[in-house]
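User: Could you check the structure of this?
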Amino acid sequence: MRNYIIKRLFLIPLTLWGIITVNFAIIQLAPGGPVDYMLAQYRGMNTDAKSQITSMSEVNTQTKPNDSAYSGAQGVPDDLIKALEKQFGFDKPWYVRYGKMLKDYLCFDFGKSYYRDKTILSLIKERMPVSVSLGLWSTLLIYLIAIPLGIKKARVDGSKFDVFSSFFIVIGSAMPVFLLAVFFIVFFAGGVYWQWFPLRGLVSAGWDNFSLMHKIGDYFWHMALPVLTMVIGGIAGLTMLTKNSFLDEINKQYVLTARAKGASENRILYGHVFRNAMLIIIAGFPSLLLKMLFTGSLLIEVIFSLNGLGLLGYEAITTRDYPVVFGTLYIFALLGLILKLLSDITYSLVDPRINFESA
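Assistant: Sure, the predicted structure tokens are below.
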């Protein structure tokens, strides 16, 4: 196993290089960009956009418009376009920008946001607590609820409990996450009926001055509705996966043999079936955690006004903030690769028969 871990650790930089290279190439070919975005804002007389353009006072508004490839360049001074290209680094060839990006990323230097006067690492540091809170608590609760429920459904397969629980699970999974979020806001966050929970933010104002117990209570008070929404939306798949995995193992020959020898049902279930049935569930842990940390929490962050990494990445894509896009992508990919490696290690711990080194 040690050789396998070393090999995987050496493959992580190569995988990251491939991901970054492919996405850099896509960005070069995709229409639009930060220059087009700022030109559109400028032509719309957006004062915020004008203030973000460096050396704005040096632009000669009487200069003839440049015959540029930018879709929004018509009627815009040539000096302004050149200033924008220099500001965003597009005055250099693509291979120079690509080489500089790779060199900086080796040192975890992701640069600064185009539109915020902050480094990418500082932005990620600011937003990380929200995404980590949503992802970890949601994943933990999903596993704590779905695995025992799936085992129970497998043991009483076809019973009234199995049928009724499946009915509610299907309803919960069929409802879109954003609809659940809106439902909770309307009924429990002051939308129409009761205001039992806060609508926005991770903590209340003045949180630094609270006592320790007050801080803990306030934190979970804010997290209650977003986490509950994500748990209801994500519990169905893992529950049915657990049930089917246990049913498949329960019907195998070694279980019949153990019963014939007089082993108790609990001994069979937790001493033999559990280890084998949990393999497929463990394999799905990295993808579920990564989904909850970043992609799955995007709508939740928007609806509940939580400034997490998912919302940061979405805002960066819509505004063509490429340093933020590449920086968050790099972090997401790195965490995904590490979680996949941890999943393989857990695989071998659960079932020592699995040998990844021979793969």
